[in-house]
Write a structure and sequence with these properties.
With about 200 residues, this protein is an all-alpha fold. It has one domain. The chain is built from eleven helices and no strands. The longest helix is centred in the middle third of the chain and has 28 residues, at about 70-95. The protein is globular.
């Protein structure tokens, strides 16, 4: 079985041998961005790699110069910048202190694990969407919070965890909310779980 896969899908085989795909671009993400997801998903190891990041990179590849790996890295760097901006906005909303917000954004960028935010991995997109979901929750924009939470769950397996704080925030003021707000609050807490379930069936 594995021998036939190696013959029919040499790109997938090379990606598997690289495992994480080298120091800059994840091999599985590169394969998912280049070929049909169904071919890559045949390998059980790919279930840890959710589809939103490579699909977004594939769309970006249309307008970016160079190979697909260039689009993956550009996307990661753009998302890392957006992540820092949203961290600043979220902390400003919570504390009202510009200095604290500035430090939070800097610490988010210079923490030791932050090196992956400039490589071709899904973490920058996941962090961007996660912080966006939290910002929407804290500003009572539940429809957008549900959207960003669902997209985060399509990016990384841990995205499903956003359903927990979403349920907590949605529960605040639920009894006094109008019908439209109640519907949005319920859907917000369920969106990450639904998206994560869909991703595992790719």
């Amino acid at each position: 079985m594995s021998a036939s896969i190696e013959v029919r899908h040499p790109e997938r085989t090379r990606a598997r041998r690289r495992h994480w795909g080298g120091p800059v671009v994840g091999g599985f993400y590169l394969s998912m961005a280049r070929v049909h997801l169904g071919l890559v998903a045949a390998d059980p190891e790919t279930y840890r790699f959710f589809p939103l990041y490579p699909l977004t990179a594939r769309a970006l590849d249309v307008v970016t110069p160079g190979a697909t790996r260039v689009a993956l890295v550009i996307l990661a760097n753009l998302c890392a910048l957006g992540f820092a901006v949203l961290v600043h906005r979220l902390v400003m909303h919570e504390t009202g202190d510009a200095e604290t917000a500035r430090r939070a954004a800097w610490f988010a960028c210079i923490a030791p694990p932050a090196f992956v935010m400039v490589w071709g991995y899904a973490e920058p997109l996941f962090l961007l969407l996660s912080v966006a979901a939290f910002l929407m929750l804290r500003t009572n924009r539940f429809a957008l919070a549900g959207l960003f939470g669902a997209l985060a769950a399509l990016t990384r397996p841990l995205g499903v965890v956003i359903a927990i704080p979403a349920a907590v925030e949605a529960g605040r003021g639920f009894r006094t909310a109008n019908l439209r707000s109640r519907v949005e609050r319920r859907s917000t807490s369920q969106s990450p779980s639904a998206s994560a379930g869909h991703s595992t069936q790719k």
